[in-house]
Amino acid sequence: MPLESPNIGPIDHTEVKSSGFTPLTIPLFRDRWIASTISSVGTWMQDTAGTWLMTSLTASPLLIALMQTAASLPVLLLGLLAGATADIFDRRKLLIFWQTWMLASVGLLAILTFIGYVSPWALLAFTFLLNIGSAMNNPAWQAIVPELVPRELIPDTVSLNAASNNLARAVGPALGGLMVAGFQRVHTGAGSVFALNALSFAGVIWVLVNWKRIPLFKSALPSERIAGSIRSGLRYVRYAPDLQSSLVRAFTYTFFISAIWSLLAVVAKRDLKQGPLGYGILNGSLGLGAVVAATTLHRIRQRFSADQILAASTLYNVVVLLVLAFVRSPSIIIPTLILSGAAWTSTMSTINVSVQLSVPAWVQARALGTYMTTFQGGMAIGAILWGYIAEHTSTPIALTTAACGLLITFPFARRFHILQGPLPDHTPYQWKHPAPQLALDTEPSDGPVRISIEYRVPLENYAEFTSAIHQLRGVRLRDGAIRWGIYRDAIDPKHLNETFVMESWLDYLRSRERITAADETIRARVRALHEHDEPPKTTYQIYAREVADPVREHSPTSDGAP
């Protein structure tokens, strides 16, 4: 069935053929990609200039490493909130607000840096403020991808987004280092970089202002409150094994690899005796490798599985950490870092794709927010640990410890597989009958609500039924149930009763909207094993609270399947 894609007309999924660059033929995505690339160049210029400015303000390896923590900690703290807001509110308006927030944060930092009124803690504070905006922006920014391209192009789209970021990473650090080195005062050079970065957000804002958004999923029900949205997102993660595997792989990888990002400036200045340009070249080497990987991932995915890509990247970065710890030759370190950047992008792009393809539209931003929280949590916590070890021992010891940790945890991490087997069909299921109408005089927020379904299952089908019904358990719990159970009648073994509880009638109605085609396949399998002239009997029961008026007595209603 054709998918209506904004501003480009219907796209027939069966006719979509990708060369890896096909998404760039879509005008809206192309405009977004160009604006994002320019903004990312400014961001990576700022990363280099800010970190080098910190090395001129303090000699503490811990404070220098905390620049990575200031960049990562906001996502750790706000990732879930960011995902919840992106699933509740208009993503276009949210993106415009947070892009403006980042422009203002960097603009203020530029002014303070130009006039020389910046301290290590002020630099950390404004870096933190900038990345609050980034943390709140990113889930919505990634969640709009399915609104711009058809589902079949999502892997290539994620790779192109990674190429955009890493093209900026290849060019930005060197440009940032060159600009800082080009001025007599570090403050002047860094301030100039900050000012350019502030301007780079304007292009993204312009694209967003002109975007005529058409959401893929729009609920007819009242919006969830933020707290409830966060709870439902966490509930989904709890009962989604595929998503959990992606999160485990993201955390174990970034926690140890964060040693490269957080200590590279220390290695450049102390061990290699390099200036800001030298540090920018080292940082840019990571970006150059990342660009190469991002533009070739389309072919790599055709030859290797996701698990093989992650395994090769992990083992190679063990070598990279040891090279940074003990080798002092830039001619060896630079090509090593280029391949490390390729390994980094191959891993993170693969995990990002697995997250986007493993969840339906209604929870996508929350899943991405959880992924970013996990990803940046590994970066932030790791940066603190490796910076602390480097300050109290030495940089080689910190890097060697990270290498050993990455190697030791590899057998554990590889048990969590991603992108295995056919992808689930997350197309929303189109119900053939309306929601049941209650006889009770209740509000939609009343609850809890218990839904009870009675099945008749022949003894010879009991094993198959229990296997199917326990798959359905995951569907119920992911979509909003707070409790679930299946019970067999001790007197009549053919009679089984499924019971699940929702917090309110409104939550039950939301769970109906969340059923996907893949979920319906599981539900249909369960119902097919019910053998009776009538379909399974379903009752809906709302918690009976004590009331003063004895006249208000009601009974449960019955209707079709939930």
Q: What is the residue-mean pLDDT, rounded to a whole number?
A: 83
Number of strands: 7
Tell me which oligomeric state these chains represent: single chain
Q: Which stretches are poorly predicted, pLDDT < 50 over at least 5 residues?
A: 1-16
Topology pattern, helix = H, strand = E: EEHHHHHHHHHHHHHHEHEEHHEE
CATH architecture term of the largest domain:
Up-down Bundle
The helix content is 55-70%
Count of all domains = 2
Span from first to last CA? 26 Å
CATH class of the largest domain: Mainly Alpha
As a percent range, the share of strand residues is 5-15%
Question: Which descriptor suits the 3D outline?
Answer: elongated
Going across the biggest sheet, name each strand in turn.
Answer: 4-5-3-6-7
GO molecular function: transmembrane transporter activity
Pfam families: MFS_3
Membrane topology: Multi-pass membrane protein
Domain Major facilitator superfamily (MFS) profile: 28-417
